[in-house]
Design the sequence.
């Protein structure tokens, strides 16, 4: 029995196990194991180095009495890199292979843009990238939270985290966090906020100062939080914050009731109202559901017909979408132990890493390769500063036999104006310095070496490529786009690709969060009433989720057209199942390198060229690609639909204009119609597009001497 218990120690105990057992498992199998894994990462040992550099702390080996010069070139470089990488545009667009869901996909795209602005995603991304710079990994936790400690309005929050705040257990070989058995997120929460979010545990929630921490990882986490998140070290900080741990688990437990011959029973998970007999009646949360026992008869739908079938092991998972245990250090019981609340079935974290390798799950920080370069350069610069200080205030030796009193010599300021000193003998022989002259001269190789180290540090960080990216984004109208694109090197493109993958995870989580937490009224605040799809109001006007899935709706052809749909009174699927199916029909499409607009200029020229050539694309889509704000909306779920609607609108406007001109007795002169001598539009003097080369912007002069821009395809 002991061997069996030991073999299963990695598994989470049942939610029916004693509270002390569950708390102990979280402390040992999640916190302890995660911190042990973290200590083995190279990035963990680099954190103090990175923190010291960002804080401007001088190397401990330096003698600051001789020189306290500290030119923090590394911090300056890292700020430029982070600032450039954090300057992003929205990544990807939602679409669907099912035509029915295309309008919803377009609505989701508008909501995501509004949520990203409202919750300040770019600034939160910047903080995550700052964590990435010194600790190799930066995380963003997209979560739904209520303001005012749980009593205010609900909204999406993007919480930035660092390497020490996330503790994975059983990391898979591909280093994908989503494949771990458990992931613990540690947050330092103000005491008042913790009391508001967990009111039933106010008496048990104690601040950091009243808890005992034994591991070095915990100590380092507390030190960083105290120094950089909440100000200068003080006992007051530890008395005002609680440590809250959110442990997400891929728990594979099944409802095995009835396997021993007893009567099986359903498990109501989440929060439920109860009837007069105390039995679960209605779900009170969006994450509430029932778990059948193996072999139980459960309803299903096949070809529009309701049937019953026996529940399999897959149907009987107690936590099909992960388990969540919320604890605080030193407590005797979890504050929450139940289903994870989000519908996404993902660990709610996006990972950002600039230098990842298969054998380094946490990757390397930006400081890893430049720390020694930075310290060596600072040592040389302090050496120069020390020489300059000595030349300004040198150590002096003097000849006592020439009549200079000791008290006078000790207080002598050789730079003092109008100083009068009487000596016996030659003045040139009276004073000297204790330092040899060759030590008071800075050799030519000294500044050359400093410059070499500066260049090596810039090259190691890929600063030139980052600067090229910044200049490229600032000059998107540059005529030589191809040359500008060639300067954006592979290092920046690699980092950008990693950021796109991480940010796609954020959007994927939000894809499930929007229908789960946002009502139709809330969506209307973001996109306006005209952009709410009619299907949103089907069956349940208060939610984005249909009350039934498509296979539940049958057709009765004996009824008149428009009344043939037969909708059951109740769906066999729970709210969460319908919501997930709804979100799964939306697919995120990401064009590589669009996050930093690396391909944006090429895309803009492509759209302009296609539009000018008469390709069926609407002016709205071109304006959107060119980032023209407030252009106006053309109805349609696809580009082709919008083009068709635009053509119809143009025909209507032409008909109205022709009718008005006939009424006024006006009409266009015939000699202004047709093409000119060169094949272009009459009156322009131009030629038709050749299509020989990729389109480029060129500046040309007109007959009046002015400058105009044109798109050239002939070189």
Sequence:
């Amino acid at each position: 029995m002991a061997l069996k218990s030991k073999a299963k120690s990695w598994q989470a105990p049942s939610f029916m196990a004693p509270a002390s057992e569950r708390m102990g498992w979280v402390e040992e199998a999640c916190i302890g194991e995660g911190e042990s894994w973290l200590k083995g990462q190279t990035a963990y040992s680099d954190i103090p180095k990175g923190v010291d550099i960002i804080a401007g702390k001088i190397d401990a080996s330096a003698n600051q009495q001789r020189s306290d010069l500290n030119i923090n070139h590394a911090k300056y470089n890292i700020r430029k890199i982070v600032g450039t990488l954090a300057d992003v545009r929205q990544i990807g667009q939602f679409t669907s292979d099912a035509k029915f869901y295309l309008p919803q996909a377009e609505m989701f795209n508008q909501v995501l843009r509004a949520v990203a602005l409202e919750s300040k995603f770019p600034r939160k991304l910047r903080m995550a990238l700052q964590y990435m710079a010194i600790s190799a990994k930066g995380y963003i936790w997209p979560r739904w939270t209520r303001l005012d400690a749980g009593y205010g309005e609900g909204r999406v929050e993007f919480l930035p985290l660092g390497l020490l705040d996330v503790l994975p257990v059983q990391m898979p070989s591909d280093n994908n966090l989503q494949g771990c058995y458990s992931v613990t997120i540690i947050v330092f929460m103000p005491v008042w906020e913790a009391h508001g979010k967990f009111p039933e545990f106010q008496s048990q929630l104690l601040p950091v100062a009243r808890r005992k921490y034994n591991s070095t990882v915990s100590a380092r986490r507390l030190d960083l939080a105290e120094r950089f998140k909440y100000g200068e070290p003080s006992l007051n900080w530890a008395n005002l914050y609680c440590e809250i741990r959110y442990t997400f688990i891929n728990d594979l437990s099944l409802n095995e009731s009835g396997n021993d011959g007893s009567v099986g029973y359903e498990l109501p998970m989440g929060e439920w109202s109860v009837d007069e007999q105390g039995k679960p009646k209605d779900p009170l949360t969006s994450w509430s559901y029932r778990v059948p026992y193996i072999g139980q008869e459960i309803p299903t739908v096949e070809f529009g017909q309701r049937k019953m079938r026996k529940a399999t092991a897959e149907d009987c998972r107690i936590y099909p979408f992960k388990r969540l245990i919320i604890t605080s250090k030193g407590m005797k019981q979890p504050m929450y132990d139940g289903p994870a609340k989000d519908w996404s079935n993902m660990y709610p974290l996006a990972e950002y890493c600039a230098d990842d390798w298969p054998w380094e799950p946490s990757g390397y920080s930006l400081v890893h390769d430049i720390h020694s370069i930075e310290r060596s350069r600072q040592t040389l610069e302090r050496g120069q500063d020390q020489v300059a200080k000595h030349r300004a205030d040198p150590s002096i030796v003097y000849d006592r036999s020439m009549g200079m009193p000791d008290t006078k010599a000790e207080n002598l300021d050789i730079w003092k104006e109008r100083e009068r000193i009487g000596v016996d003998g030659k003045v040139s022989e009276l004073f000297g310095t204790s330092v040899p002259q060759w030590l008071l001269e800075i050799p030519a190789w000294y500044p050359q070496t400093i410059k070499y180290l500066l260049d090596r540090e810039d090259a190691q960080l890929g600063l030139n490529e980052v600067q090229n990216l910044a200049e490229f984004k600032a000059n998107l109208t540059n005529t030589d786009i191809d040359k500008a694109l060639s300067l954006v090197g592979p290092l920046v493109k690699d980092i950008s690709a990693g950021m796109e993958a991480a940010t796609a995870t954020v959007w994927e989580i939000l894809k499930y969060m929007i229908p789960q937490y946002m009502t139709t009224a809330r969506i209307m605040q973001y996109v306006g009433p005209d952009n709410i799809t009619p299907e949103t109001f089907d069956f349940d006007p208060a939610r984005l989720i249909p009350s039934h899935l498509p296979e539940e709706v049958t057709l009765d052809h004996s009824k008149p057209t428009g009344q043939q749909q037969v909708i059951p009174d109740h769906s066999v699927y729970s709210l969460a199942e319908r919501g997930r199916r709804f979100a799964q029909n939306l697919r995120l499409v990401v064009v590589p390198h669009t996050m930093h607009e690396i391909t944006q200029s090429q895309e803009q020229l492509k759209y302009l060229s296609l539009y000018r050539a008469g390709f069926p694309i609407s002016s709205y889509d071109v304006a959107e690609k060119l980032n023209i704000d407030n252009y106006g909306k053309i109805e349609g779920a696809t580009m082709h639909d919008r083009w068709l609607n635009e053509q119809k609108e143009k025909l209507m406007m032409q008909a109205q204009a022709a009718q008005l001109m006939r009424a006024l007795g006006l009409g266009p002169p015939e000699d202004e119609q047709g093409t000119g001598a060169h094949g272009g539009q009459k009156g322009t003097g131009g030629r038709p597009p050749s299509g020989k080369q990729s389109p480029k912007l060129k500046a040309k002069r007109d007959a009046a001497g002015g400058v105009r821009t044109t798109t050239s395809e002939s070189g």
